[in-house]
Amino acid sequence: MTEQEGVVKYELLFDQAEPVSDHDYGDLNRWHGRFKRAGILGQDPQRYDGLGFGNLSQRINNSNFLISGTQTGYLDMLSPADYALVTNADISTNRVTAEGRVRPSSEALTHAAVYALDVGIGYVFHVHSPDIWKQRQHLGLPQTDAGVPYGTPEMANEMCRLYREGAFQRGNVFAMAGHEDGIVGFAASADEAGEAIMALLHRSTA
Ligand SMILES: [Zn+2]
């Protein structure tokens, strides 16, 4: 089962607010650029009905994280106004509370579910790579169940299952089998999460 990109599955409580300005967006912006140049984040009339794909987030504290706004994949450079601050995410009720100039990515609940796995996770990067996704088994990637759509409580449960089963002990990247080309990397640092994805991309296109 695959599904359309960019469709918000969760209930969003959103407040217009000033962007978070006292924050260093350097890591997020650098990886936005690298992923975009690699073709695994962006916007392309030939892919996903022309909708933006890929989104990056950074934990601010236990309950808050910054995430790229919905449909910002086409931008070469993001400004603070292109990020939303997620202040609460209730996975069991499928509800996200956020604020900013722009609404959060449609995959904010997926990011929230990854952060909930471990307080040491500082960054979550979601990209769309047909190369990695098609070779996910060959590459030995953990994967969420193909029948589970992204951005749902079931997806969060799937990630908890992988975590419990120790699937992330050998790596910090997994494939979303029910979300075409969907790959998620996470780590304490941006470079750790980003380089893990890039290494898989190189292996899958070698
Ligand atoms: Zn996606």
What is the share of helical residues? 25-40%
Let me know the number of strands: 9
- Largest sheet: spatial strand order: 1-5-4-3-2-6-9-8-7
The radius of gyration over CA amounts to 15 Å
Uncertain stretches: none
Arithmetic mean pLDDT: 92
Please trace the helix and strand order, writing H or E for each element.
EHEEEEHEHEHEEH
Shape: globular
Which molecules are bound in this entry?
A: zinc ion
What does this structure look like?
With 206 residues, this protein is an alpha+beta fold. It is built from five helices and nine strands. Strands 1-5-4-3-2-6-9-8-7 form a nine-stranded mixed sheet. Helix 1 packs parallel to helix 5 and helix 2 runs parallel beside helix 4. 42% of the residues are buried. The structure holds zinc ion. The site of zinc ion has 7 residues, from strand 6.
